[in-house]
Design a protein that fits this description.
Helix 5 (105-119) crosses helix 10 and helix 16 runs antiparallel to helix 17 (407-438). The protein is 49% helix and 11% strand. It is mainly alpha-helical. The radius of gyration is 26 Å and the shape is globular. The longest helix is centred in the last third of the chain and has 35 residues, at 368-402.
């Protein structure tokens, strides 16, 4: 008796562990029951996907049947999509059509989200709004203390993103005020900065690309957004391939998989070939062991390793700038990029070799000395970035202890920096072997 009970216990434990690894089904939760009912009323039929909580990715969708390459993952009817057409057919439509200068499609969608969220129970979109994140983890929402810990190129983009939302808010105040007749409460209270920031992040992190014809009531910015309830629960993986688009025949937005997916496994899609800096900037997350990821070398860091006494230094920098070789210089899982090594070779040219710079940009070898010097400098830069990254990781662990409120954002930057460190250490190893081969 004892023996068999033990075996059942082990089986149950294994089953529990397996469930935990695969994901915990959340379709019994009230918000998902309401969302599925709401989608069904709009013509969405689905029996295979279940909302679930996953260990690595958080909230996502699991499949109740095995998927093969070529299968449709999801087909979401046009009626379920939230686009600028939805906005224009709402009570906001007339106000948008009469407002001059015309608002952007992005602002129209932001305004609609804020207004519907404010409407609460009265909003026909409430079942969707209820499952949207309450807060976001994009750099635009991060505190300056956290933004300062980002790698230089990402820090600059994060600050630009923040300023862009501030400018959108500033320039939209008059338009928001014009909507006062629609509300009993002051529009200044409803359309405040944090409401706009939330709406902007919702659109930036969750919309699918869908081109709409231009309408005169909108500014000339492209109208390419659609919010896709339920479909937007699908998480990203750099290792899967999918095909997605609006099917004119079925009038639905469809995603087909090019990969297999086991029963009860999380269904993953690919948002695009993005590195971790781009994923964090645009979507607010980092992918572990992302094959697309790389560490960027700024022009300032690059030039630190070349003597200001070099008479041709100015000319070399000018050549690299003119041929766009001072941007997108990276270390990746396979070592320094061709672009980075090319820039280093041009900067390492001896006076008598300077005339060869065109050949180097085309991928030719100038001399063994030049090749060796470029590799040696790449190794020094890599080592500098390793030390810099380790220093930042120390700062993060200190801040995590001191600032409880920043923990979530700090953990994300820590993930990004830890991935960077792995890439740089791999690059250092590759460079060490290359340098040994050339000596």
């Amino acid at each position: 008796m004892k023996k068999s009970r033990g075996r059942t216990g082990r089986k149950r434990r294994r089953k529990h562990l397996k469930g935990f690894m695969d994901g915990v089904n959340c379709s019994h939760k009230l918000e998902y029951i309401k969302l599925k009912k709401w989608l069904k009323e709009r013509g969405f039929e689905d029996s295979n996907l279940r909302p679930a909580e996953f260990w690595e990715t958080g909230r996502g969708l699991m499949t109740t049947k095995a998927l093969q390459a070529g299968d449709v993952i999801i087909s979401l009817p046009e009626k379920c999509l939230l686009t600028t057409s939805t906005v224009l057919s709402s009570c906001l439509g007339g106000h948008i059509e009469n407002w001059k200068p015309p608002v952007s499609p992005l602002l129209a969608l932001c305004t609609f989200l804020i207004a519907e969220k404010h409407a609460g129970e009265k909003s026909p979109w409430k079942p969707y709004l209820d499952v949207l994140p309450k807060t976001y983890t994009c750099p635009a929402c991060m505190e300056p203390d956290v933004i300062n810990l980002l790698p230089k190129p990402l820090k600059k983009k994060a600050q630009e993103q923040k300023m862009m939302i501030q400018e959108l808010f500033r320039s939209s105040k008059a338009f928001f005020s014009s909507l006062q007749p629609l509300f009993t409460e002051s529009t200044g209270t409803i359309f405040n900065f944090s409401a706009l920031e939330w709406a902007w992040c919702t659109i930036n992190t969750r919309t699918i690309y869908m081109k709409h014809p231009h309408r005169d009531c909108f500014s000339l910015e492209p109208d390419v957004y659609a919010l896709a309830p339920y479909l937007d629960l699908l998480n990203h993986s750099p290792n899967v391939q999918v095909k997605a688009g609006f099917n004119e025949q079925t009038r639905s937005y469809e995603i087909w998989t090019n990969s297999q997916c086991r029963k009860y496994q999380e269904v993953l899609i690919c948002y695009g070939p993005h590195d971790n800096q781009r994923l964090l900037l645009e979507y607010g997350f980092v992918a572990m062991d992302n094959p697309q990821s790389s560490v960027y070398v700024s022009a300032d860091t690059l030039l630190k390793y070349f003597s200001p006494l070099d008479k041709q230094r100015k000319a070399k920098v000018s050549i690299l700038k003119d041929h766009d070789f001072l941007e997108n210089l990276t270390f990746g899982w396979e070592g320094p990029s061709w672009r980075l090594l090319t820039a280093l070779k041009v900067l390492s040219l001896a006076a008598e070799e300077f005339a060869c710079w065109r050949r180097i940009l085309l991928g030719d070898v100038s001399s063994a000395r030049n090749e060796q010097q470029a590799l040696a400098t790449a190794a020094k830069i890599c080592q500098f970035l390793i030390e810099e990254t380790q220093h930042v990781l120390l700062q993060i662990s200190q801040l995590k202890r001191d600032k409880e409120n920043l923990k979530t954002h700090l953990a994300l930057v820590e993930m990004l920096r830890s991935e960077d460190l792995k890439i740089l250490q791999k690059s250092a190893e590759i460079l060490c072997n290359l340098n040994l081969g050339t000596t």
